[in-house]
Every structure is written in C-alpha cells, then in structure tokens.
Amino acid sequence: MYVTIAPSSVGGRVRAPPSKSYTHRAILAAGYGEGAFVRDPLRSADTRATARAVEAYGGSVAEREEGFEVEGFSGEPAVPDDVIDCANSGTTMRLVTATAALADGTTVLTGDGSLRSRPQGPLLDAIEELGGEAASTRGNGRAPLVVTGPIAGGGVSIPGDVSSQYITALLMAGAVTERGIEIDLETELKSAPYVEITRELLAAFGVETTETGGGFAVAGGQRYDPPEGEYSVPGDFSSISYLLAAGAVAAAETVEIEGAHESAQGDRAIVDIVSGMGAPVEWNRAEGTLSVSAADLSGIEVSVADTPDLLPTIAALGAVADGETRITDAEHVRYKETDRVSAMAAELGKMGVETTEEPDALTVHGDRSTLEGAAVDGRGDHRIVMALAVAALAADGETTIAGSEHVDVSFPGFFGTWADLGVDLEERE
Ligand SMILES: O=C(O)C1=C[C@@H](OP(=O)(O)O)[C@@H](O)[C@H](O)C1
Ligand SMILES: C=C(OP(=O)(O)O)C(=O)O
C-alpha cells in the first residue's frame, strides 16, 4: 500500500500502543510457565509470531478482549510439528531459537526475506557451546535455522555488540534449564536497556537474574509464575517517538500522549532528545502522559548505542531541525529489518536532505526550508515508514510512502492515529 501525506499541523490527545518488547517477553514467559493472562498486549504482526511459536512448543494463546490468555508448556517445550515461521520479527526468532534448544528433538525456524538476512550466528554458537546442535541451513549464520536440544545449561561467551536479543533469549531459556546459564560478554553490550527490560519482566514473573562482573547469569530450575497469574504491558516508547516527533515538528496546539509510564525502556530517551532539540515537553510520570508543543528545532549529537530503534525518528527530526544532527554508535542499527542508517540517508535524500553516512554514524544536515515532498520507499520496514511520515509533515508538498502497511509490525493503526492528530493523508493499494 501507499500513503500520501500532505504537510499538516497536528494536535489532540492520542494513546501510545502497548510495548512490543514487553509483549513478546510476557507471552513467552507465560509459555515457559504454566500460563498467565497478558493484559493489554500489543496485538501486532510481530507479537503474533511469538504467540504462534508458543503454540508450536505445546502452549496456547487465546486472544480475549482484555488480553491474551496463555497456557504454558511448563518449561518443557514439545518438538514442533512444523517449521516455526517468525515472519519479520527478530525478537521472536532470537527468543524462540533458545527455546528450541530446550526441546528433546529438532526444531526448524525461518522468517521472511528481511529476517533471513539478519545475523543469528552468535546465538547458534552459544547453543553449541551449551551442548546443543544449532546450524544455519545455508551455513551463513542466517535463517533458516535447525536447532536440536536438549541443553542442560552451563557457561557461554557471546559478543554483546551484535544483538542484545541473544542475551535475552539465553536468560529466558536458562531459567528452566537444569543448571542455569552464565553469560560472559566478549564485547561491550549494545542495546543494553533491552536486557534490563528482560530482567524487569522476569522479576515480575518471579524469575531471578543477576549481573555478574562480565555479563549476566540466571539460575536453573526456576518457575515462571506472575502474581495473580497476570501481567500488564506498559506503553511503547519507540512508538511514542513518532508521536512526540510529530508534535515537535508540527503541533498547532499541544499533542498529548497517554500510556507513557516509566519502565526499563531505553527509548524513553526520546523525551530528552526532543526537548534537547528545543521542543517543550512535559512528562507527568504519575499519570503516564506526555505533552509536547512545536518549536524551531536545532540539531543535536546523540548516541544510539542503547536506543537503536530511535535512529529513524532522530534522523527525521534532524531533517526538520536547523544545523547538524549527528547520530553516533549506530553500527548495530544496520542489522535491523533493513540497514536503517543507509535507508534513512537515501530516503531523506529523495526529500532534499543532505546526510553524511559513516560506518557507525549518520549526520543529517538539517534545513527545514529545503525539505520537499517526494515519492519515498519505506523499505518494508515499519520504522522507516513511520519516520518518513514525520518528515512528511514538515515538507513542502506531498510525500508518498510505499509500503505503508508495514506499520502493522509494531504500531497497527498508525495512520489512523496520524489522522486523529489532524494529519491530511490518504492510503491506497
Ligand atoms: O529485545 C528487544 O525487544 C529488542 C532489542 C533491540 O534489538 P537488538 O538487541 O538486536 O539491538 C531492538 O532493536 C528491537 O527492536 C527490540
Ligand atoms: C528491530 C526491531 O524489531 P525486531 O528485532 O524484533 O525485528 C524493531 O522493532 O525495530
């Protein structure tokens, strides 16, 4: 599908979708236990992929009005009847590849073209180090993957700078192994707050993890069992980034965002980034509301070591801001649904924006007066689509984004929310 967006001003009160990261983990945690009710989950293409995997391992996930009713496989995943299709979701593939290592038999995992291009080698090596068998069918460290268990746990070393999802995967699976898993990081951990999200969620399910000198550890033989048998998912700060950015570049009146409660999400850094660029932002943490007004923005330097998913949003803000916006520590942002560093450089380039790309950085030379509407490509990547939809608000003339349907991966109804904010847009096949 295509969406055409005319330059618009925005205002009003909207609700952030529930967190994708917490929803994935809550569904799988409930699967590792006897089950749980996941209240207010994100119902999206990616989180449904995790739900399907839990079913493949012998659990069940029923969608109810208020949440997902999950029945678990009690720490003993069955050998799936069929290949597990993780679709577009890296989180699903990494987290449930470690689950496969617990099953007494062989599991095959695959995904769409984008997911089959993303790195899985370090996780396969870790499973082998723990005594399982794990291979890429093409021998290139990418899916399709074939994993044979069971593993009993033990010590493992893994790089920290490719994906934090490997650590999350091993911690979650390790809790139900016999011996637990001790993870030694070979290189500095990137996307570190996502491991904190994991640890926070595991604690809420009664599972203890520890930070060691060189990494993390989880004891084996633990039970996943949240109080009252339920878990409530907080709002998603990566999704909030587009709403805050829309307010910062185009609010005629204040934009108010509900569902912004404190949690371990590193992407809450967007609040400081937007205000650091000059937009007035207020965060009422007790109520979980944010309000933002527009201002003349200026460029900023920001590291995305901890917050890779914010790069497309910051790049779009940088295109509207005056002066240079330099986004550093971004190498791991190239391993996402697309290489988001070069995707943003190229697509903003079509809108008249000058950028400088380095292996681990992107500099956007912002000048709102030269930002022009154009035909751009969302690259089949939800975050590229949504970030370009931010830039479109401030462009001179209409912008048409190809692949608008991909927002379903993390923010279903994104363009409905955009319209509620007053954006002048049209979607078509
Ligand atoms: O664990 C998670 O929920 C995620 C971790 C991050 O990936 P990496 O750890 O691969 O950087 C992030 O980019 C992704 O959107 C979600
Ligand atoms: C990279 C992302 O997710 P995943 O790794 O789960 O595909 C994302 O949501 O931006």
TrEMBL record:
Binding positions for 3-phosphoshikimate per the UniProt entry: 20-21, 25, 163-165, 191, 309, 336
Subunit details: Monomer.
Enolpyruvate transferase domain boundaries: 7-417
A single GO BP: chorismate biosynthetic process
Pfam families: EPSP_synthase
Record-given protein name: 3-phosphoshikimate 1-carboxyvinyltransferase
Residues binding phosphoenolpyruvate: 20, 90, 118, 165, 340, 383
Root EC class: transferase
Residues annotated as the enzyme's active site: 309 (proton acceptor)
Pathway(s) annotated for this protein in UniProt: Metabolic intermediate biosynthesis; chorismate biosynthesis; chorismate from D-erythrose 4-phosphate and phosphoenolpyruvate: step 6/7
Compartmental location: Cytoplasm
PANTHER family (alphabetical): AROM/DEHYDROQUINATE SYNTHASE, PENTAFUNCTIONAL AROM POLYPEPTIDE
InterPro entries hit by this protein: Enolpyruvate_Tfrase_dom, Enolpyruvate_Tfrase_sf, EPSP_synthase, EPSP_synthase_CS, RNA3'P_cycl/enolpyr_Trfase_a/b
Keyword annotations of the record: Amino-acid biosynthesis, Aromatic amino acid biosynthesis, Cytoplasm, Transferase
Family in the record: Belongs to the EPSP synthase family.
Reaction equations catalysed: 3-phosphoshikimate + phosphoenolpyruvate = 5-O-(1-carboxyvinyl)-3-phosphoshikimate + phosphate
GO cellular component, as recorded: cytoplasm
Naturally occurring in which organism (per UniProt): Saliphagus infecundisoli
Functional summary from the UniProt entry: Catalyzes the transfer of the enolpyruvyl moiety of phosphoenolpyruvate (PEP) to the 5-hydroxyl of shikimate-3-phosphate (S3P) to produce enolpyruvyl shikimate-3-phosphate and inorganic phosphate.
EC number(s) on file: 2.5.1.19
MF (Gene Ontology): 3-phosphoshikimate 1-carboxyvinyltransferase activity
